[in-house]
Amino acid sequence: MDVVLNRLAGRSPVAESRLAEVRGDVDWAFGASTLGEIEKRLRHLDTPWAAAALGALESASPQSLEITHALLARGRQRTLRECLDAELALTRTTIHTPDFLEGVRAALVDKDRTPTWQRASLGGRTLPS
To answer: pTM here?
Structure first.
């Protein structure tokens, strides 16, 4: 089995992929503990990949970024069931927020793809524990 796997491992296209080229930068930048630190690290890298990643983050809903970052961080200590329960609870409240409604407007209603985010967090609400 090892002989076959080793022979196949040498042909993996992943080793020469674009992701493999920037893997160290991805790990370093997104290994930061806060969104602000992730942004700082991406700016520090000053590479085309980092600029594209930063652009993607800047165009996303700040609320969604906060939620996703928190869920990922908390998910490290949770079971799959606990993660799914937290996502469901959060979805039930998030769909009523201005940023969610704005995202739906920009993507599905007007289809202008130019959302105007509130740049506010959860409006005083906290993430479910």
So the answer is: 0.72
